[in-house]
Amino acid sequence: MGNQAKLSASGNDYDFPVLKGSVGPDVVDIRKMYGQTGMFTFDPGFTSTASCESALTYIDGDEGVLLHRGYPIGQLAENSSFMEVSYLLLNGELPDADELSNFEFTISRHTMLHEQLLQFYRGFRRDAHPMAVMCGVVGALSAFYHDSTDISDPQHRKISSHRLIAKMPTIAAAAYKYAIGQPFLYPDNSLSYTGNFLRMTFGVPAEPYELHPAVEKAMDRIFILHADHEQNASTSTVRLAGSSGANPFACIAAGIACLWGPAHGGANEAALNMLKEIGTPDKIPHYIERAKDKNDPFRLMGFGHRVYKNYDPRATVMQTTVREVFDALKVTDPLFETALRLEEIALNDPYFVEKKLFPNVDFYSGIILSAIGFPTTMFTVLFALARTVGWVAQWNEMISDPGQKIGRPRQLYTGPTQRDYIPVDQR
Ligand code: SDX
């Protein structure tokens, strides 16, 4: 008999199997618990719940470790490319040179959007938030690809995954162009995945676009840092949507909607807006006190994490990349100094130390994205663009699991018990 976990309740003892992963906490398998005990577990926010088995990404929050298929994020950010990391997440192993070039070729052949889909943008106001546009346009993809929505067919799943990864840069760039009233640019597949995106975003038909190698490299690294992150809120949303058999385009649109929240992917936009509100380092103590005040809803955006109780390894890479982009573009930003000072003060404040609140991936990203030329409203769009490969990889992993079933949590009901209807003239 393997490891067991005992539960004593209402005078009875119950044993539940303890399952081990390749690394990380063991899990108590409670799939039969309700049947055996008549009780549910209760875990709002899923702080102690493993929702699935996965081989994609491992996070050790105490040590600040993030692995994609076993490879540390720092090594991937330093040595790999977003296309190579995408292949790794989807297929489980790093590609050889031929596999990588074939993958890049395949993705490049799906970068264009259906011309009708480009009309879709015209229904939005020009000042619509680009994330609202992304939710609508990505969801609308399911109206265009009837040839690949049979999720039980691995080939359909593969081409849908490739289409989503390939089209997100085109959709994101078009959302930006629409907002600023410039014409859409078509993809140029002679460029890299990330170079193509930068040209579609910042290029104009009136003149050639010159890619800045350091900007292309930094953007590609930022995509790597955002590719996947275990069972975060938006990934869990994609999995839950996918568990009903919904098509992948609708599932990714659901993930985009969830990511938009300021507690999640929307934090990069909120973090830069917070730094702008703080302004200069002398104002930091006031905001630190506000962040600590239980009666004040203000939080330090870009700080804290459900899993990391140590420095988010992605924030480390992000901070280094700020310096590289500033050096390359010969720019600076006083908000970077404010951010560095804010981090220094917070990490020496007992409140943040006790609650293990460290900078997360969203704290520095906005500073780089601003320096590259993105408005704050585009920051979460870029997060969604990169996270699409993680979402589709997690979705594929779930759908191809023979034991997969629809996700259907239960509840602790605290509403009125049964009572009879009272006609209105007797109330
Ligand atoms: C992302 O899950 C992922 O992996 C997400 C992500 C990914 O790649 O997918 O990593 C991306 O979403 C990063 C997180 C971005 N969000 C922010 O930066 C928003 C600011 N952070 C907080 O909202 C918060 O830290 C969360 C939402 C990120 C985590 O919240 P938890 O785990 O539910 O923790 P909590 O809210 O219960 O906070 C614990 C305590 C609380 O105080 P007490 O009730 O114990 O007294 O810490 C406090 C909180 O008030 N706290 C903060 C704080 N974050 C938590 N206080 C001040 N400033 C903060 N930023």
Write the layout of secondary structure elements.
Elements: E1 4-9, E2 12-19, E3 27-28, H1 33-37, E4 57-60, E5 65-68, E6 71-72, H2 73-79, H3 82-91, H4 97-108, H5 115-120, H6 130-140, H7 154-180, H8 193-202, H9 213-225, H10 233-243, H11 248-259, H12 267-278, H13 284-292, H14 313-329, H15 334-346, H16 350-354, H17 362-372, H18 379-399
Antiparallel strand pairs: 1-2, 2-3, 4-5, 5-6
This protein binds s-citryldethia Coenzyme A (SDX).
Explained architecture:
This protein is mainly alpha-helical. It is built from 18 helices and six strands. A three-stranded antiparallel sheet has the order 1-2-3. It starts with a strand and ends in a 28-residue tail after the last helix. S-citryldethia Coenzyme A is lined by residues 229, 232, 263-265, 267, 291, 299-307, 355, 357, 360-362.
Structure keywords:
single chain, 427 residues, mainly alpha, 3-stranded antiparallel sheet, globular, binds s-citryldethia Coenzyme A
What does this entry show, briefly?
The chain is mostly helical and 427 residues long.
Total number of helices = 18
Q: Residue-averaged pLDDT, rounded?
A: 96
Radius of gyration: 23 Å
Strand order of the largest sheet: 1-2-3
Helical content stands at 40-55%
Residue runs with pLDDT of under 50 for 5 or more positions: none
Strand content: 5-15%
3D shape: globular
How many DSSP E strands?
Answer: 6
Straight-line distance between termini: 60 Å
Cofactors, ions and other ligands in the entry: s-citryldethia Coenzyme A
- Listing every helix as H and every strand as E from the N terminus to the C terminus, the arrangement reads EEEHEEEHHHHHHHHHHHHHHHHH
User: Which structural category do the helix and sheet elements fall into?
Assistant: mainly alpha
Biggest sheet record:
3 strands, antiparallel
